[in-house]
């Protein structure tokens, strides 16, 4: 085992971590905002609005992310004159923005479905109680519905975050040099595919492990009502969530 | 958990038994890998089968050696790693014989020699400069002078190149910091981005560029500046082998020699590449 | 682009890519199905280890699930592709076989999908097992039912009922993951559209066609899964 080689590769791959985190961070943040709006719309709006939104969600959930990235990058590249006329070519010219666009649209579709499930789980009694108190629609969502829905959706949304971090590895296919892209570069210089991919895998594992821990902590913080009181904890074993 | 290991070991062994038997009869039947995305040297048709100059040459060489050949397609950047781990026995994928690659694999004698060049818009400074000719990078003075003349003409432009190739090494060595190098998995992809205007130019082998530029979408582009050979480009295009397969390599060398002598390479290259790339005998 | 050109490009005439794309779509379904079936074995074993195994078995199963859910599937595929042959060659040498031992591309693809889907299926089976009311198992024990019979009559039928929605999700995930096998040169739907896009320089047409075919596959399989779910709930009273 060539420890020095592993060390060198590992350090070089770390150089790609900022870009990996940037791609995941930006698309997850914008995607989350979009997902909230979409989920509320899907939950409440008239069929005229819901139908096209359902189509969008089905499209992005029903096709591979790789196809979406290729379609947005190489596919739309064919329509440069029209995109230039619309003044949006600067966006589609850069692989960086194409990947962010694809990842954002993808995570927004998945996120909308997850949050919609959360919204559906909010007990009707809670909403009735809030309305009976004379809460406005906005206040009702801010104080009652969204917090409950988020708490319910958190485990599933956590999975989505991890899937997105993993999904950024596809950016290497459209010339971006994030962790996987750099891994390919090192392989092309050393031809030692196995060692390099093991290093890259370790980096993603560390990233995702940190995210999992952070999410578990957040979930713990947000669910004091679900935990048995300290006295009872030793008596009854905590049931594991399926 | 022990079950999993047992099962894995058992299935691995049964597979090994099946494929191991094939490996022992290798001299009579081999697998040749090509990229299948480098027209007209090698490309893939609608039926998923490889075609092109190197595919026809491979068939010709196999017939001469009386070896049964299967041609498979493998992504460019995985070709050498996959050869060394034994996915196939020979690479014929327009791969240049370079010292760096010779550290890991072995090559036959060259079966083609084809210089590399820039392709840029006809209206660009490089195209209008009228620079041309052919430069051997081993003759450093001449080549460097020509490169220094090109530098100001392409400064700040984005140039597409295929990753893990000698063309990419050339740009990295002589144009790093001068042009913005963008690396693609296949030449097909950088061709698409040239048409889309995401890159200002390409750097690739002349025959490959000529085939791309012959298509109507590329009417506004042309091959410009000199062609480069030698140096990082090595000693021409050869077939790659594992270092242990010396007998197979020698058989290929003899067959390539015959194909050069009887004009087969000239005929095939003129048919596919529209120019004669035959190396000296 | 005018319509006739579009039709002839994707059509079934001699120069059309229609048959190639449909064959490739069939390949995608075959790969995903084989991957999920083989993955059921890995997932089942891992779930069993996590539920009933000793400390070592549980640790190994935990590591397996964490590893393959945390590492990008693209890397798992590459690793298996490049690492699988080396491993087999080493095993082969150990048992006296000569030379290199290759793992065929199709087998590599199925194995990759099986390993990835197994990590997800383990969670599904574990959750489904925990959802079976303890009274059912106690009742079977009280009737002195032998273990295998209990597994066949009591546990497996109910396990499957609870697992169907989760398995449906895994299937959809693996179906889309199979597109990543294009990077190891397996001619499935994604690879075929890349080949088409490259050689005709019409990427938009081919990637749209691929997207539509993937959608058709996910829609049909989604409908089948919903039907299976409904059927499995025949005997259940709705609250």
Automatic annotation (TrEMBL), chain A:
Q: Which Gene3D superfamilies match?
A: MetI-like (1.10.3720.10)
PROSITE patterns referenced in this protein's UniProt entry, alphabetically: ABC_TM1
Localization terms from the record = Cell inner membrane; Cell membrane
Q: Domain ABC transmembrane type-1, which positions?
A: 17-215
Keywords, A to Z? Cell inner membrane, Cell membrane, Membrane, Transmembrane, Transmembrane helix, Transport
List the signal peptide residues. none
Transmembrane stretches in the record are 21-43, 55-76, 161-187, 193-218
Cross-referenced Pfam families, in alphabetical order? BPD_transp_1
Say yes or no: keyword Transport present. Answer: yes
Q: How does the protein associate with the membrane? A: Multi-pass membrane protein
* Listed PANTHER family: ARGININE ABC TRANSPORTER PERMEASE PROTEIN ARTM, MEMBRANE COMPONENT OF AMINO ACID ABC TRANSPORTER
- The entry's protein name is Octopine/nopaline transport system permease protein
UniProtKB/TrEMBL annotation, chain B:
Annotated Gene3D superfamilies:
Periplasmic binding protein-like II
Where can this protein be found?
Cell envelope
Q: Which UniProt keywords apply?
A: Signal
Hey, what's the signal peptide range on this chain?
Answer: 1-23
Chief location bin: other
Please list the residue ranges annotated as the Solute-binding protein family 3/N-terminal domain.
Answer: 29-276
Domain of life per record: Bacteria
Recorded hits in SUPFAM superfamilies, A to Z, give: Periplasmic binding protein-like II
Please tell me whether the keyword Ribonucleoprotein is annotated for this protein: no
**What family is this protein classified in?**
Belongs to the bacterial solute-binding protein 3 family.
Q: Which PANTHER family match?
A: ARGININE-BINDING EXTRACELLULAR PROTEIN ARTP (PTHR35936:SF17), MEMBRANE-BOUND LYTIC MUREIN TRANSGLYCOSYLASE F (PTHR35936)
Q: What is this protein called?
A: Octopine/nopaline transport system substrate-binding protein
Annotated source species: Ancylobacter polymorphus
From TrEMBL, chain C:
Where is it chiefly localized? membrane
Top-level taxon in the UniProt lineage: Bacteria
Q: Which InterPro entries does this one have?
A: AA_ABC_transptr_permease_3TM, ABC_transp_permease_HisMQ, MetI-like, MetI-like_sf
Q: Where are the transmembrane segments?
A: 20-48, 75-95, 101-120, 204-225
Keyword Transport set for record: yes
Q: Which Pfam families match?
A: BPD_transp_1 (PF00528)
Q: Subcellular localization, per the record? A: Cell inner membrane; Cell membrane
Family, according to the entry, reads as follows: Belongs to the binding-protein-dependent transport system permease family. HisMQ subfamily.
Q: By what name is this protein known?
A: Octopine/nopaline transport system permease protein
Which species is this UniProt entry from? Ancylobacter polymorphus
């Amino acid at each position: 085992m060539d420890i020095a080689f592993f060390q060198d590769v590992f350090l070089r791959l770390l150089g790609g971590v900022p870009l990996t985190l940037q791609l995941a961070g930006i698309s997850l943040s914008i995607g989350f905002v979009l997902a909230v709006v979409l989920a509320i719309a899907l939950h409440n709006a008239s069929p005229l609005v819901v139908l096209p939104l359902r189509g969008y969600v089905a499209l992005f959930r029903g096709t591979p992310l790789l196809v979406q990235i290729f379609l947005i990058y190489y596919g739309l590249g064919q329509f440069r004159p029209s995109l230039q006329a619309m003044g949006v070519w600067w966006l589609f010219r850069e692989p960086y923005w194409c990947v962010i666009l694809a990842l954002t649209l993808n995570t927004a579709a998945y996120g909308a479905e997850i949050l919609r499930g959360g919204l559906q789980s909010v007990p009707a009694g809670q909403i009735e109680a809030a309305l009976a108190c004379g809460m406005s629609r906005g206040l009702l969502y801010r104080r009652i519905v969204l917090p409950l829905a988020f708490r319910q959706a958190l485990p599933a949304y956590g999975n989505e975050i991890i899937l997105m971090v993993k999904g950024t590895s596809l950016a290497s296919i459209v010339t971006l040099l994030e962790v996987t892209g750099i891994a390919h570069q090192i392989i092309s210089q050393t031809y030692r595919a196995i060692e390099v991919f093991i290093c890259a895998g370790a980096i993603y594992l560390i990233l995702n492990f940190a995210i999992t821990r952070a999410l578990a902590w957040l979930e713990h913080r947000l669910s004091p009502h679900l935990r048995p009181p300290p006295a009872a904890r030793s008596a009854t074993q905590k049931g594991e969530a399926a | 958990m022990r079950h999993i290991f047992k099962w894995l070991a058992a299935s691995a062994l049964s597979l090994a038994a099946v494929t191991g038997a094939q490996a022992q009869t290798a001299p009579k039947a081999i697998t040749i890998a090509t990229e299948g995305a480098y027209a007209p040297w090698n490309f893939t048709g609608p039926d998923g089968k490889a075609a092109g100059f190197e595919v026809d040459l491979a068939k010709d060489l196999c017939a001469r050696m009386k070896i049964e050949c299967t041609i498979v397609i493998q992504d460019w950047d995985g070709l050498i790693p996959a050869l060394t781990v034994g996915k196939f026995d020979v690479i014929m994928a327009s791969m240049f014989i370079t010292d760096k690659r010779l550290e890991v694999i072995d090559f036959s004698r060259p079966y083609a020699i084809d210089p590399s060049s820039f392709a840029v818009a006809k209206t660009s400074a490089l195209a209008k400069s009228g620079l041309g000719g052919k430069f051997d990078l081993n003759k450093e003075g001449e080549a460097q002078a020509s490169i220094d003349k090109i530098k100001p003409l392409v400064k700040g432009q984005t140039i597409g190149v295929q990753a893990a190739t000698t063309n990419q090494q050339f740009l990295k060595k002589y144009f790093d910091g001068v042009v913005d190098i963008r690396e693609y998995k296949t030449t097909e992809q950088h061709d698409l981005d040239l048409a889309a205007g995401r890159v200002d130019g390409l750097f690739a082998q002349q025959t490959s560029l000529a085939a791309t530029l012959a298509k109507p979408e590329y009417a506004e582009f042309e091959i410009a500046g000199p062609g480069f050979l030698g140096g990082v480009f090595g000693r021409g295009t050869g077939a790659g082998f594992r270092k242990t397969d010396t007998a197979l390599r020698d058989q290929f060398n003899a067959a390539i020699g015959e194909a050069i002598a009887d004009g087969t390479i000239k005929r095939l290259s003129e048919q596919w590449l529209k120019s004669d790339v035959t190396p000296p005998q | 682009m005018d319509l006739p050109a579009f039709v002839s490009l994707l059509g079934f005439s001699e120069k059309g890519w229609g048959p190639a794309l449909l064959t490739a779509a069939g390949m995608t379904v075959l790969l995903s199905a084989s991957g999920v079936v083989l993955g059921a074995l890995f997932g089942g074993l891992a779930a069993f280890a996590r539920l009933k195994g000793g400390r070592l078995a549980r640790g190994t199963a935990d590591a397996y699930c964490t590893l393959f859910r945390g590492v990008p599937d693209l890397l798992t595929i590459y690793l298996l592709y490049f690492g699988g042959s080396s491993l087999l060659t080493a095993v082969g040498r150990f048992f006296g076989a000569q030379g290199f031992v290759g793992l065929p591309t199709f087998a590599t693809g199925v194995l990759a999908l099986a390993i990835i889907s197994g990590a997800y299926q383990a969670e599904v089976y574990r959750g489904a097992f925990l959802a079976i009311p303890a009274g059912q198992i106690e009742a079977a024990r009280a009737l002195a039912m032998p273990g295998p019979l209990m597994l066949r009559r009591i546990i497996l039928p109910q396990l499957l009922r609870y697992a169907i929605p989760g398995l449906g999700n895994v299937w959809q995930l693996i179906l889309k993951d199979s597109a990543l096998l294009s990077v190891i040169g397996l001619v499935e739907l994604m690879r075929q559209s890349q080949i088409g896009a490259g050689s005709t320089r019409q990427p938009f047409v081919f990637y749209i066609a691929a997207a539509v075919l993937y959608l058709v596959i996910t829609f049909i399989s989604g409908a089948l899964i919903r039907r299976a779910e409904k059927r499995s709930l025949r005997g259940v009273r709705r609250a």
